[in-house]
Every structure is written in structure tokens, then in C-alpha cells.
UniProtKB/TrEMBL annotation:
The keyword Ribonucleoprotein does not apply. InterPro entries: Asp_de-COase-like_dom_sf (IPR009010), BFD-like_2Fe2S-bd_dom (IPR007419), BFD-like_2Fe2S-bd_dom_sf (IPR041854), CT_Nitrate-R-NapA-like (IPR041957), MoPterin_dinucl-bd_dom (IPR006657), Mopterin_OxRdtase (IPR006656), Mopterin_OxRdtase_4Fe-4S_dom (IPR006963), MopterinOxRdtase_cofactor_BS (IPR027467). Pfam families: Fer2_BFD, Molybdop_Fe4S4, Molybdopterin, Molydop_binding. Its cofactor is Mo-bis(molybdopterin guanine dinucleotide); [4Fe-4S] cluster. SUPFAM superfamilies: ADC-like, Formate dehydrogenase/DMSO reductase, domains 1-3. Belongs to the prokaryotic molybdopterin-containing oxidoreductase family. NasA/NapA/NarB subfamily. The keyword Nucleus does not apply. Keywords: 4Fe-4S, Iron, Iron-sulfur, Metal-binding, Molybdenum, Nitrate assimilation, Oxidoreductase. It comes from the Bacteria. Residues 8-64 form the 4Fe-4S Mo/W bis-MGD-type domain. It comes from Vreelandella malpeensis. PANTHER family: NADPH-FE(3+) OXIDOREDUCTASE SUBUNIT ALPHA, RESPIRATORY NITRATE REDUCTASE. This is Nitrate reductase.
Length: 909
């Protein structure tokens, strides 16, 4: 039978983005992933995918991938790169000491990669300095759970969110960052009209679409808010005394601390800067309902008092006995696809392995015996290593001589960016395992190792509800890329540890990991993390592994595993601990010089430092440029209007971006995205504005609370340049631009440019940038300079000088780049910046169906009065649903506008 007539084979795997951990069914044809769909059988998503998941296949392909090792800036063979790596590492370690070697890993590694990296560094290189980007993400949540429960264990599962009577979302923009879970919650709420949702966030986010109550608190005031709740519950008799007596300790101390910092509802309302009545409503709802889930995320964790905030939340659940039940519990949602797997293998510097810490009695000895293989004896360190921020400080001080970075981009994602970059530049040996060819981090690498990526890798990940799922390889790695676990094991072998790293397939690593989880794990001090039931089952079972929650029990197989149902905790006394919390302010303090509170976070369509999501052009359209969201009053004070360019400054850095005015933003606060790197803009890294202050317990940095000032960039000119794929502008004039943003599109690249230096001779300027002479130009149309380069009949580049608001719409121009020969008529229109058949649809609201804001507004004017009507006409919002909140706000905005236009003038005055 002919190949093409066969149905393309499809494989179930897992999405490599957020911690929801959705199952994906991928179809492969002719050596490429042709399509992806939600896996209807996966218990995380039951067939749904968000826009990032459904664009996965658009981010693949060899272009832009790292295909070959590099050694000292030059392409090299694997042999040369690995020989240099082992030789240099051995020499540096011999000269400077065992503990001058370090690794910095990531929650985007698979469990098997993570396990062998941890085993190599802690077990055989004998250095404790192996930490992970989860330090920037989950460290406070981990520390909070350990203090309360004696183990790092998220008690609940996704079904609890659906079964709850009250869901509290604290510091989480679920609608954008865990979209499929948000859709599940939204549906559950539609089915159960009695369910209530409270959102606690200084910004009004799209998540507020389903909120019955919104608390727009002052940034950093969550501990006071939850201490107030504890005091309220005690005062109003909403304490489960039976539960407290039987299953907890520390109540009186916690209550005393709570009362001290939260003497009354009015005092808390003032401290949190919210309305007292709304606050009391929240307290009343929480106190009254047993089935409450508090889901918390980075608005809580990324703080110098993040651990305390987690415990302030957990305290309230313990006091009310609201955990270990269906629909109840303090639920820290994980960010990365395998943040949880990293915690399981012990990837944090204060952990050893398999939920054992250095101070866990007997743990060092136990892990040493477990890892001993044949003639090889591991040499484990005796005490925890540096946490991420400390690690980079130690590198700067010269105490670390070797750093191996895997699957993370710390040159962008760490705070105190100037110091991090100084440290990286100074470190004698930096090794980077990466799958993308151009990242900020690669500039600092002595040795670059090309890693396989999603669609190529085989292994497991664990999602937010402790569910282990298989990621399955669909294609061979491109070029010379190898799997992370293979690279690590090859290096281990070259270092002489081959016997302990002789794995042939990830299933063997998983098997060992599963065995370790059950190794001497019984009786007093039993570790909760035990997946030993999954060991010893061989490769076929591993390949066929269905998503399963730990602890691996029969209930888990039915999909309902929940921890602490019997009120038995992993502390020495078996009781959960309430922690006395004294709230603290953010440590980055505001001043006359830096008066604005800086909030940083995520946008709907991008993932972290954009190395993968920016490869899908349609994901660039929702927010195309780096931005700063400001309250109109703050913008006004700085002389800024919407779409202006602004400069944010902090003591050690600067950030330049486009202004978005927003009433969703509190006064005195600014919000910027964490995503932009030097690959996409000139000065748009959030880390440049943040200090490296950390939580004393967890070591997590305070990336939600910077202190900055804002001013106008006031450029002499702005321009939009579009260039056919492949060409890159250069030269001194280009380097001297005060602002640039690169926006990849299909078949061309759009650049937004601005400078404070006036240009007298545009044709000469363009020639300097592009090395191309101007073949067509016009400066007559609307008084704006426009120019285009047409070579061999094909549009090669297009320039318009003027602010981007005056752009004629880039969609039709983009299609001109894809044409082989432009007619004379088309050339005229391109220059005039208009096309009879083309109209600007505005920024994209619905990324799945690429429906622009303007198109939606016109449909509303044409009579569509609901999201359903818009969906029927334009298909927007009908696929992943992530844009529904934005569609609703557009409908409301347009209704509001229509009302005010109809209102008689007197009423408006
Ligand atoms: N689209 C997308 N999704 C992602 C990611 C991504 O890059 N893009 N990354 C994934 C990862 S690794 C993570 S960790 C998660 C993070 O998911 P979230 O935690 O939801 O993401 P953030 O946008 O960082 O922050 C959440 C909210 O905290 C609020 N906040 C700031 N300060 C405070 C405060 O003091 N108190 C309270 N209560 N709230 C505050 C912010 O305004 C923001 O809306 O997202 C995951 N999902
Ligand atoms: N200002 C501010 N900063 C933040 C945050 C914030 O909210 N605000 N959030 C923090 C949080 S929660 C997080 S999780 C971090 C995330 O920050 P990072 O981890 O630095 O971000 P990513 O862009 O996901 O980096 C992953 C890198 O690994 C590469 N990669 C992907 N898959 C693989 C693989 O399989 N193998 C290898 N070897 N490489 C791979 C990608 O191309 C990419 O370069 O950022 C933190 N930084
Ligand atoms: S919700 Fe998260 S895991 Fe699911 S498809 Fe979207 S990014 Fe992937
Ligand atoms: Mo994260």
C-alpha cells in the first residue's frame, strides 16, 4: 500500500509547557509533527489544550535549533567538546576543590535527565552545589509544605477544584498561565452555581472573569490578609477544635502572631489597602465553607517572605480542618512541566534525593549505599549547597570554577541581572546544554551542547497534582543533538563513573529512581514520595505507562489520590504544624527616587524567555512588543500616553518598552512581562530591574516586588521595518538605536524602532542598516517617509517612519513578502502603505483563529452582543477559550462607549 494512504501514526505524549501537564496526541507524517490535539483520555485535560499547547507543532523544525556542539565559540565535534569538558572539569576540580563545581538545572528537564544530573553532581562529583530554576518558582511553596506537613507534598488534586464550594486564587493568573485548569474550573462553576471564586491579586487579570469577589490588595500584603483570616475564624468560632487537637500543633502561637499583626478586619483592610466590607465577605465565605481550595502561585511565592505567606494560607486550612477532603486544601500550583519531578529527584540544593534532605536522619548513608555500584563508591557532600542566587554570588566571588547549565536561561530569568552576567563572564568554565541556537545564555558558554527537545525526548514528567505522565519521542533529534540524560551519562563515563551511569534507555533510569523512592522507606519517618510500585516492570510497561498520581495506590489509579485524608502528617509527631507568621514588607523598598512598585509576570501566549513560543508567529500577535502597564494617573504624571515609549530605571538597570495604559493596574504600580530577552529587544529584560533579595527560609527571590521610576523615552522618530526572512540589519547606526523590538512573522520579520537621534537622510540610514540601496521610496504620502526594497520583483524590505499606531496593518504587507513578483500596482500600494483589499485587524485577541481586535469591534458594532454571537460569526474563542475574558471586556467596553455616546451632554457633565 502507498504510504500516503495510511493514516498518519499518532502518539500520546505530554505538553512541555505549564504544570497543568496536559496530554497531547501528536500526529507524525513525513518526518514531521503534522498536528497536535488534546488527549481525550488524559486526566489533566480530557482533550483540551490551550493556545500554546495547540501551537506546539508550529514551534518545531530544524530552523533555529542548536545542531552542533560548540567549543570556545567555534563549531566542534562531540568528541572534541566532551574531551575538553572532562579535561577542564577534572583539572579545575583537582586544583580548586570538589565543591568548586556546580550545576544549575531546570523544571523543564525530564525526571530521568534530572535524576542522572543529581546523581552525578551530588553523588560522584561530590559537590552539593546543584540547584535549579525551581528556586525562582516553587522554593517557597516547598518550604511552606515542609514546615507544615513535614514533607513537600501538594495534598490535593484537580478534581478538588471542581468539587470545592469556594476557590480562592491567590497570586495566580490562572486564565493565562494554567489555561486548561482554568477552563475546568470555569466549567465546574457553570455547573454548580453555588460555587464561589475569589481572586486576590493587585492587578485585575483575565482570571477575574469568573470571580465573585476580587481583592485588589497592596502588593506583598498577603500574609497580613491570611493572618487576619485566622484571627477572624478564631474570633467567630469557625475553628475545628477537634481537628486542631487531634492533628495539629502550634495553634496558639500562630493565633497570637496573627492577632498581633491583624488586630481587626478594619486594620487588615487598611494594611492591604482594600475595602473592609469586601474583605469581611471573603473572611465570612472562607470561614463558613468546609470545601475550600486556596490555589496559590507566584504572587505568593516570589517574595522575601514567600514561605511565611504559604504558611499563613496553610494555617487557615488547618484551623478549619479544610484539607484531606474532596474539594478542600491549600494547593500550590506548579509552573513548569516537571517542577514537581525535580522536587521528587531532589534537584534543589538543600535536597539530597527522593524526598530526603541532608539532615534527614540516615539519609546520606542510605543514598550512598543505594548509589554504590560494583567497585564505585559515591562520595556525597555532607551539607546543603548554594541556592540559585547564592550560587551566582559565589561564582562572582570566584568560589565556583565550573558551572553546567541545563534547560534554563539564567542570563535572562534571574534577578540582579548585571551581577549574574558579570559572574557568568568570570566563571572559568561554563557549559550550556540547550536546544535553541540563539539564547542570551549561549554568549557566556565555553562549551555548548546541543540537546534534543520536546517531540524527540523520552521520559516522564510530574504535574501539579503529582501525576506522572510519559513524554514520548516522536522524531529523531535533529543534527547532532543528543538527549540530556545521554549527555550526562557520557560525561559521567568519561569521568570514570561508567559503572554507575551505564543506562541504555530512560526506562532504566526511571526504574532506579522508583526503587530509590521505596528504598528503606517504611515505618517511622516513612517518606510520602514512594513510587516503588512502578519499579521492576520493564521497558514495555514504561512505554505504555498511563498517567498516574503518587503515592501510587489503587485510589490513584482511579484518579483520586489525595494526601492526609487520615490527618496523619509526615512530621515527627505525625501532626501538622501551624506556623506563627509575622508579616514583613517587600525588601526592595520604594523611595523618592524609585517610587513605583514593580510587578513582573507572564502573558498568555509566551513561555518564559520565548526561545520556543516566539517560533510560532501567531503567538507573537497578542503582545508583539515588550511593554509596561501603567495606571493612567501614573502615566500622566510622567507625561506618557498610551503606546508611548517609556524607560523604567532601578539602581542597577534599565528597561525600555511600550506603554499600555490600564485601569486594571493599581496606582503607583507598574507591570512588566518577564519574557523579553536580548534576542527580541534592546533593553527589555525584567531581571535588570530587580534586586537579588531572597526569602530567608526558601532562598526564593522577590521577583514580584521591585522598585523603579518611570520616564518618557521621547524619541526623535519611530519606525517600522519589515524584512524578508534571512536578512539581519547591522552597523553602528543600528547599534545606536534607543529602542528596537524584533517580531518574527511568517516569511518576514517586523522591527519596531526608535531613536532620540534625528535622521536627516533616510535613504543613507537604510543603506547603513541593510547594506542595500533604496530602490523605491516615497515621502509624500501623509507626510510620512516610506521606503521599500524590491529586488528581482520580490519585496525585500519595507519601512515606514512614524509611530506604530499609524501602521496600515502588517498582515497584508506580510503577504506581499510571500509573493514572488509584485505588480506595478502592488508596488505603488505597498509604498502608499495601503491596499484596497486589506484592512488592519488590529492586535490579535484570539490566537487560535487569529482574530484581531478591530475585526471583533466591528462585529460588535454590527450587532453581536455576546461571546457566543462573536464565536458564531468569527470563530474567536471557540477553540481553547483563553481569549473569552478579553472578548467579554471588549463587549463591555463597546457597550459602555455606546451608552456614553447616546447619553445627553448634560448627563455626562
Ligand atoms: N502563558 C504562560 N503560562 C505559564 C508560564 C509562562 O511563561 N507563560 N510559565 C509557567 C510557570 S514556570 C509558572 S511559575 C506559572 C506562574 O503562574 P502565575 O503565578 O499565575 O504567574 P505570574 O504572572 O508570574 O503571577 C501571578 C500573579 O501574581 C500577581 N501578584 C503580584 N504581586 C502579588 C502580591 O503581592 N500578592 C498577590 N496575591 N498577587 C500578586 C501578579 O499580578 C500576577 O497576576 O505559570 C506557568 N504558566
Ligand atoms: N522577573 C521575573 N523573573 C522570573 C519570573 C518572574 O515571574 N518574573 N519567574 C521565574 C520562574 S517561576 C521561572 S520557572 C523561571 C523560568 O526561566 P528559565 O528557565 O530561564 O526560562 P526558559 O525560557 O523556560 O528557559 C529554558 C531554556 O531551556 C531550553 N530548553 C527547552 N527544553 C530543553 C531541553 O529539553 N533540554 C535542554 N538542555 N534545554 C531545553 C530552552 O530553549 C530555554 O533556553 O523564570 C523566573 N524568572
Ligand atoms: S494548559 Fe499548560 S500543559 Fe495544558 S496545553 Fe496549555 S501550556 Fe500545555
Ligand atoms: Mo516557574
Amino acid at each position: 500500500m502507498h504510504e500516503a494512504s495510511c493514516p498518519a501514526p499518532s502518539t500520546n505524549t505530554t505538553c512541555p509547557y505549564c504544570g497543568v501537564g496536559c496530554g497531547v496526541t501528536a500526529t507524525v507524517r513525513d518526518g514531521r509533527v503534522e498536528a497536535v490535539e488534546g488527549d481525550p483520555t488524559h486526566p489533566a485535560n480530557f482533550g483540551r489544550l490551550c493556545v500554546k499547547g495547540s501551537a506546539l507543532h508550529e514551534t518545531l523544525g530544524e530552523q533555529g535549533r542548536l545542531l552542533t556542539p560548540r567549543l570556545d565559540g567555534k563549531l566542534a565535534s562531540w568528541e572534541a567538546a566532551l574531551a575538553a569538558l572532562t579535561e577542564r572539569l577534572t583539572a579545575l576540580q583537582a586544583t580548586h576543590g570538589r565543591e568548586t563545581v556546580a550545576a544549575y538545572l531546570s523544571g523543564q528537564l525530564l525526571t530521568e535527565d534530572y535524576y542522572v544530573a543529581n546523581k552525578l553532581f551530588k553523588g560522584f562529583l561530590g559537590t552539593p552545589h546543584l540547584d535549579t530554576n525551581s528556586r525562582l518558582c516553587m522554593a517557597s511553596a516547598v518550604a511552606g509544605y515542609k514546615r507544615a506537613f513535614g514533607a513537600d507534598a501538594v495534598p490535593g488534586n484537580y478534581e478538588d477544584l471542581e468539587e470545592a464550594e469556594l476557590v480562592v486564587l491567590a497570586g495566580s493568573n490562572l486564565a493565562w498561565n494554567h489555561p486548561v485548569l482554568y477552563q475546568r474550573l470555569k466549567l465546574a462553576k457553570e455547573r454548580n452555581p453555588l460555587m464561589r471564586v475569589v481572586v486576590i491579586d493587585p492587578r485585575v487579570t483575565d482570571t477575574c472573569e469568573i470571580a465573585d469577589l476580587y481583592l485588589g490588595i497592596q502588593p506583598g500584603s498577603d500574609a497580613t490578609l491570611f493572618n487576619g483570616l485566622l484571627a477572624f475564624m478564631a474570633e467567630r468560632g469557625h475553628v475545628d477544635t477537634r481537628y486542631l487537637k487531634r492533628h495539629t500543633e502550634g495553634f496558639l502561637d500562630a493565633l497570637e502572631a496573627a492577632r498581633k499583626s491583624a488586630p481587626s478586619v478594619a486594620a487588615v483592610a487598611a494594611a492591604c489597602d482594600i475595602d473592609a466590607e469586601r474583605l469581611e465577605t471573603f473572611y465570612y465565605w472562607f470561614a463558613r465553607h468546609l470545601h475550600v481550595v486556596t490555589l496559590y502561585s507566584q504572587g505568593v511565592n516570589q517574595s522575601t517572605s514567600g514561605t511565611d505567606k504559604c504558611n499563613a494560607i496553610i494555617n487557615c486550612h488547618l484551623v478549619g480542618g479544610k484539607l484531606g477532603l474532596p474539594g478542600a486544601g491549600p494547593f500550590s500550583i506548579t509552573g513548569q512541566p516537571n517542577a514537581m519531578g525535580g522536587r521528587e529527584v531532589g534537584g534543589l540544593a538543600n535536597q539530597l534525593a527522593a524526598h530526603m534532605d541532608y539532615h534527614t536522619p540516615g539519609a546520606i548513608d542510605r543514598v550512598t549505599r543505594f548509589w554504590a555500584t560494583g567497585s564505585l563508591a559515591p562520595c556525597l557532600p555532607e551539607a546543603p549547597g548554594h541556592k540559585a542566587i547564592e550560587l551566582f554570588e559565589a561564582i562572582e566571588r570566584g568560589e565556583i570554577t565550573v558551572l553546567w547549565v541545563m534547560a534554563t536561561n539564567p542570563a535572562v530569568s534571574l534577578p540582579d541581572a548585571a551581577r549574574v552576567r558579570r559572574a557568568l563572564a568570570k566563571c572559568p568554565l561554563v557549559i550550556v546544554s540547550e536546544c535553541v541556537a540563539n539564547t542570551d545564555m549561549l554568549a557566556y558558554a565555553d562549551i555548548v551542547l546541543p540537546a534534543s527537545g520536546w517531540s524527540e525526548k523520552d521520559g516522564t514528567v510530574t504535574n501539579s497534582e503529582r501525576r506522572i505522565s510519559r513524554q514520548r519521542g516522536l522524531l529523531p533529534p535533529p543534527g547532532e543533538a543528543r538527549h540530556d540524560w545521554q549527555i550526562i551519562c557520557e560525561v559521567a563515563t568519561r569521568l570514570g563513573f561508567g559503572e554507575a551511569f551505564g543506562y541504555n534507555h530512560p526506562w532504566e533510569i526511571f526504574d532506579e529512581h522508583a526503587r530509590l523512592s521505596g528504598f528503606e522507606n517504611a515505618g517511622v519517618g516513612k517518606r510520602l514520595f514512594d513510587i516503588s510500585a512502578l519499579a521492576g516492570r520493564g521497558r514495555a510497561a514504561y512505554d505504555a505507562l498511563a498517567p498516574v498520581q503518587w503515592p501510587v495506590t489503587r485510589a490513584a489509579a482511579r484518579g483520586t489520590a489525595r494526601l492526609f485524608e487520615e490527618g496523619e502528617f509526615a512530621t515527627p509527631s505525625g501532626r501538622a504544624r501551624l506556623v506563627a507568621v509575622t508579616p514583613r514588607e517587600p525588601e526592595q523598598s520604594l523611595s523618592a527616587r524609585y517610587p513605583l512598585r514593580l510587578n513582573t509576570g507572564r502573558i498568555r501566549d509566551q513561555w518564559h524567555t520565548m526561545t520556543r513560543t516566539a517560533r510560532a508567529p501567531r503567538l507573537m500577535n497578542h503582545r508583539a512588543e515588550p511593554f509596561v502597564e501603567l495606571h493612567p494617573a501614573d502615566a500622566d504624571k510622567a507625561g506618557l500616553v498610551d503606546q508611548d515609549l517609556a524607560r523604567l530605571t532601578a539602581p542597577d538597570g534599565e528597561y525600555r518598552a511600550r506603554v499600555r495604559l490600564s485601569n486594571a493596574q493599581r496606582r503607583g504600580e507598574a507591570f512588566i512581562p518577564m519574557h523579553w530577552s536580548d534576542q527580541f529587544t534592546g533593553a527589555g529584560r525584567s531581571g535588570a530591574l530587580l534586586s537579588g533579595r531572597t526569602d530567608p527560609v526558601s532562598g526564593q527571590p522577590e521577583t514580584k516586588h521591585g522598585a523603579v521610576s518611570v520616564s518618557a523615552l521621547a524619541p526623535a522618530w519611530q519606525a517600522t521595518l519589515m524584512i524578508r526572512d534571512g536578512a539581519e540589519p547591522e552597523g553602528a547606526a543600528w547599534q545606536a538605536l534607543d529602542y528596537w523590538a524584533r517580531i518574527p512573522m511568517a516569511g518576514c520579520t517586523r522591527w519596531q524602532l526608535a531613536s532620540t537621534r534625528p535622521v536627516d537622510d533616510w535613504p543613507a540610514e537604510i543603506e547603513a542598516w541593510l547594506g542595500a540601496s533604496v530602490t523605491l521610496f516615497s515621502d509624500a504620502a501623509a507626510g510620512r517617509f516610506r521606503a521599500a526594497g524590491v529586488y528581482n520583483g520580490r519585496l525585500s524590505w519595507w519601512l515606514m517612519v512614524g509611530p506604530p499606531q499609524e501602521l496600515p496593518g502588517t498582515g497584508w504587507l506580510q503577504s506581499r513578502f510571500n509573493e514572488d513578483a509584485l505588480s506595478a500596482n502592488q508596488r505603488r500600494r505597498v509604498l502608499a502603505g495601503c491596499d484596497s483589499g486589506a484592512r488592519d485587524a488590529g492586535p490579535v485577541v484570539c490566537s487560535c483563529h487569529q482574530v484581531g481586535r478591530q475585526t471583533i469591534i466591528e462585529a460588535i458594532h454590527a450587532g453581536d452582543q455576546s461571546v457566543e454571537a462573536l464565536g458564531a460569526r468569527l470563530a474567536c474563542g471557540t477553540q481553547c477559550g483563553s481569549c473569552l475574558p478579553e472578548l467579554k471586556s471588549l463587549l463591555e467596553e463597546e457597550r459602555g462607549r455606546a451608552r456614553s455616546e447616546q447619553a445627553p451632554a448634560t448627563q455626562l457633565a
